[in-house]
Amino acid sequence: MRFRAKIVDLACLNHFSRVVNTMARLAKMCTLRLAVDKLYFILSDKVDNGGVSVWCELCQGNFFDEFQMEGVAAEHNEIYLELVPENLSRALKTAQNAKTVKIKLTNKHCPCLTVSVELPSLSSTSRIVTHDIPVGVIPRRLWRDFREPSVPDFDVSIYLPVLKTMKSVVERMKNLSNCIVIEANLSGEMNLKIETDLVSVTTHFKDLGNPPWVSDDESPSSAQVKDLENMAEARIDIKKLLQLLAGQQVNPTKALCNIVSRRIVHFILLHEDVSLQYFIPALA
Amino acid sequence: LTECKLHLSSFLLVFGRAIHAIARISDEFCFDPVEKGLALRSVNSSRSACAYVFFSSMFFQHYCWAAVSESCQKEKPLPLPCKLIIKSVLPVFRCINMLERNVEKCNIYTNSNDHHITFQLICKHGVVKTHNLTFQECDPLQAVFAKHMCPNVLKLQSRLLADIMIHFPMSQEEVTLAVTPMKVCFRSYADEDTADYSKAMHTEIQLNPDEFDYFQVGVDSEVTFCLKELRGLLAFSEATSSPVSIHFDVSGKPIAFSIDDMVLEASFILATLSVIGDEAAPEQPPRVSQHQESKPHWNGNSHNMELAAPRSPLAKQETKIIPKMSNGDCTGIEGATIIETNDCATRELRSTHSDYHKVRKLQSHLPYFSKQGNKAFQLFHSLFFGAISFKEKDAINDTLHSLATASDTEEDSVPTQRSQV
Prior knowledge:
The complex is a heterodimer of chains A (284) and B (421). With 284 residues, chain A is an alpha+beta fold. Chain A contains four helices and 18 strands. Chain A has a nine-stranded antiparallel sheet. In chain A, strands 5-1-7-8-9 form a five-stranded antiparallel sheet. In chain A, strand 12 (179-184) and strand 13 (190-195) form a beta hairpin. In chain A, helix 1 runs antiparallel to helix 2 and helix 3 (163-174) runs antiparallel to helix 4. Among the domains of chain B are: 6-69 and 76-137, Proliferating Cell Nuclear Antigen; 147-192 and 201-273, Proliferating Cell Nuclear Antigen (Box), CATH 3.70.10.10. In chain B, 12% of the residues lie in helices and 35% in strands. Chain B contains five helices and 26 strands. The relative contact order of chain B is 0.16. The A-B interface holds A 84, 87, 90-91, 94, 108-110, 121-125, 127-134 and B 160, 166-167, 169, 198-211. Chain A: One of its GO terms (biological process) is telomere maintenance. Chain A: This is Checkpoint protein HUS1.
């Protein structure tokens, strides 16, 4: 098992740091899956993370100048590592004016992801900052826990409002209630609601637009007999929603959510070279 | 009677940062005006860190110092007593940003007759904030540390030091400095006893000797010291924009971070961790040090910091030795030997176990400032806050932070290194 990668471009480094920062806000521990052409940050829906799951996919070519990976075996040419994303985020944070950043899998007192940052210095030789981040190697027999989740059979799919606006709305609601109801319909309308004994607050969004999904078993031109006004809704933990919204430092190219009434809300955020899927289960 | 005035806001910032830096060491410090200037001294509860900042009279717009003899005291007139103020002074300088923007002048004056020290901040728009604090007398301690005898000396710009330390998280307790003639390395230190030793992230910074203004390595060494205690000095040195000098030796011997400027000097002396292999330090009988003898310096077996009073207090004539704890318990037990002689008090903290971590957790046997042994009441009265509370001297642990404290986004809270008295 070998892994070495290098970033030389500051914009790429910045971008990669932002992805890692987002993960750090969403999960205490997560899985980093390394494949030949892609990297994935994965959190699978376990009870201890509240049933939330995260799937973040990056094209390595868009970030790394060099990327060499040799998996556990020839026919399973991938590496699955368990790590604390906050550590990686911290290691990259002070590298913002680095000449190069190298990341490699090493074995110090335990398997580590070693981040080696070459910084400009006042002397002829660069300053080198090395961070050893302990990781756990996930054995192959557990890999099936980390498969890409499928898009659920949703009732409504809708584009999200501007994330900054959504975040400030949800942030204020957080002080009033622990859960929030997201409802939306196929007419581009979405409501965020909280209800307590004392107060109900609803924020209405209109004209958001609904993404055109093409279903496998229907031809796209067949008429959809669906009530466009019908709201699909799910009640979810407000903190989990806020974790997602607070972690977004840059506006995604596309942001949408799929609601399965009273079951699950599936968020998809697409940037140029990163896609993030976030599943929040509905509360009883 | 001492009176000093600080006028320029940039000087006020430096002064405020000095107070904050000292606050990282201990909850109490000694405010010691002398003829040439004002000294601030502090020692932490486990005696593993000692801070000293000296502002020469030229630092101040106006500095006036006069010795007063107290007729109510003993027959011999006292020199101006050193004063001890707890961290009740910290709220005065709490919000550094506010200081810079709003405060035009700061007057500090003392009157030893009624044991008061007054901090008067003259702010914009005609606002005057007056803080009246009562002090107790104390005997200041300073570490006896021969900088010139250190084989290793590094001098670097404060900006560089800050750029190095920024790579360590604020939660990082200890850091190791490792030097050879070819390179300098700062790395995070993790106690092998802690539960998450293997899970902890490890950070290391390597620098070329070229980056230093002055680089002297007489002996390869690795010294581990407490970074948290140093953070205040980092902010302080950036405010003074003076270079920082680091004097150190091999592991176990103290490390000193100092600033030497035209109008001020500062030195923070920290104990360093001894390498574990060294632990067979034989018990030594307590030494009596006379004033005439040269101060006992470091030997391979005593991992301690010597603290001495810089001037002769009104001391007892006899020599008093307080025995250590029983020799039977060797591991992790420290004893404090207090030796008083005619003219000076030397306190040596000896460790039978070289790990200074243990020092921190151990009770100190005697409060270090109590000389005459008379109880004094601590009265804190601040006109600004309008609150009064009485505290017994020994109950200093119940500090008065229940009074209004400004929110301070800049500094971490004062570390709670208290001896469990």
